Amino acid sequence: TKSVKINTVTREAYYNNQLIENLTPKEFDLLLTFVRSPKRVFNREQLLKQLWEDPFYGDERTVDAHIKKLRQKIEVIGPQIIQTVWGVGYKYEDPGDH
Question: Could you tell me which residue ranges the OmpR/PhoB-type domain spans (predicted)?
Fold first, then answer.
């Protein structure tokens, strides 16, 4: 079974049947992007192009800051599901897939 369930109408996300509290719109969109492509590695540039204004005027490290906050909200509920692929980017690993 899937560990993460997303309701795109209400823009709510659940992990292990618990609501992930206080997701910002950008955090929700990040999580949705990852969940729709499990195990796919996204680099910062891909995430910026997909989820931020194009062209994006700012530091690409803004992606890291959003992922850090998203991870903190996930860790309250259970094991981390957003993995860092060193030197490349980030990916979603659903523990329910093992």
Answer: 1-94
